[in-house]
Amino acid sequence: GENVEQHPSTLSVQEGDSAVIKCTYSDSASNYFPWYKQELGKRPQLIIDIRSNVGEKKDQRIAVTLNKTAKHFSLHITETQPEDSAVYFCAASRPGNTGKLIFGQGTTLQVKP
Amino acid sequence: NAGVTQTPKFQVLKTGQSMTLQCAQDMNHNSMYWYRQDPGMGLRLIYYSASEGTTDKGEVPNGYNVSRLNKREFSLRLESAAPSQTSVYFCASRDISPSTDTQYFGPGTRLTVL
User: Starting at the edge strand that comes first in sequence, how are the strands of the sheet with A72-77 ordered?
Assistant: First the structure.
């Protein structure tokens, strides 16, 4: 079945630095790739997503890139701030109306002031 | 709008006991999902309901059952709880349109099975 691998599992950066989280997926039919952020003790929330017909998408300090050939996608956070500290999850989904998401294992990002 | 709500927030069970986790959404979404979250394993799909009247298995359905009671409510039942089912359980509903495909999560239920 579909598998999504996420790296690294933990990431520590200094405030103002950039952070990059990478995911690879196994199902070449996957066409939708969201990223969710989960603050400590809170529920996951969608922060950005990308579809397979797009190579890059940006929203202020966050961006996502997709390489369909290599089956990997990445989250980039620039000018990190302490409030970016959280667990980030990537996910992948196939076409269809089920909306089933297969999540990566998560990356704990710590931004040190 | 309350969004997605879940009850209870916390629960402790003994091995073999049963319980039902409740989930409701007031956003008129068709699709709803149950996930479990364990350290280092991300969110794993237990069951989902693509539309009212349908349910289907996800990645880890063993030991669980679900009921899509109506468009708003989707419950998850543990018939005979086991320590391996100790986890945080999240319910979600899906908002899909040409411009968005977003799952909205409930606050979660932290379940401990002794």
Answer: A4-7, A19-25, A72-77, A62-67, A56-59
